[in-house]
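Notebook entry, structure prediction.
Reason for the run: the old model in the group folder had no record of what sequence produced it. Starting over properly, with the input documented here first.
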Amino acid sequence: MTWRGGDIPALSANNVEMGKINLAKETNYGSEALYKKWMNKGDTKKGDIIITMEAPLGNIAQIPDHRKYILSQRVILLKTKEDLIYNDFLKNFLLSDLFQNRLKSYSSGTTATGIQQSKLLKLPIIVPPIPQQQQIARILDTVDKAIAQTETLIAKYKRIKIGLMQDLLTRGIDENGQLRDPRTHKFKRSPLGMIPDEWEVKDLSSITFKIIDGTHFTPKYIDHGVPFLRVTDIQDTEIHFDHVKKISLQEHQFLTQRCKPEYGDILYSKNGTIGLTKVIDWYREFSIFVSLCLIKPILSLVNPWYLEEILKSPVVNEQIRMRAKQGTIINLHLEEIREFLIPVPSCNEQNRLIEAWKKYNNCLINEELYLTKLQKIKTGLMQDLLTGKTSVKPLLTNQP
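New structure, fully documented this time:
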């Protein structure tokens, strides 16, 4: 259609995310004339529920304010009977696994699943009395607010850390525990830009004993044996050894003749998802696949935890961007990794930098763990409250 300008947002399936409308994504805006022509079945109002019918199927949100909206591609509006259903309750019910699983079971399509409106309208909804619906919505909204606040705090810590990294990697921390000031300290030019006069810039190969990747052949997996790590296994904060692939002890011993991971070494992903970095801070034996490389730091020159942060920082990410080869997957060769330029302060200053990073890393980790806990609490509450398994009365006594 021709949008003809204007300031009325048109909500496509692209704008409707689980639980919210996102106008930060690409959004078309229409004129008043187009609005009247297109929305001829009625206006949206605050609290109305919208659902995506295809690509993606089943994203649920509520109209957040009193402004006008045009309903665009693959989005429909649900106008409820207010004497039977409370919109905030219905929103949570439609977001629940109970409804989402039922919705998918009635869908059709292969590359893009969707549902016909006639089938959607036949899906059953659990409808307790209105006062109970309001109580359930109040409890779940309280958890939602806690989740939103935690997400905001995580984003804040991430912004602070980006700024902190920029300062620490260009100014460092002096003997007094302060960021160096160009007015009182000497700086020099380097291939990485201006750095403190005391620092050096070295190739990664010159501060490590060995940089080598894992086996290039897929081993035989068994149910019980020695852990075998791949890129996907180091994406989380913790490695879940119970869920990784396993190989025989004999094959592990053969593989570690060439590549033996040890405490204090660094795992670095080089194929598929590149740049994932993790210090080996455990003593359990394991082997690795070719998608990971093993970096063995010279401890008299570089602290593994300092090097881990550098390998994850913009200093190296920019070098990756320049070196990465785009194909069916993104990959780095070992020789390219060995040539990474690394800023190298004294070991004492590396320790001071680690402590500064650790403060914000711990804040981030704690908030992310708390977010995961809140999300699990909400999932459990939705399952129990929306099906009537748990009464709302005991929960409401603890509500503000």
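Summary: The longest strand covers residues 57-62.
The old model has been moved to the deprecated folder.
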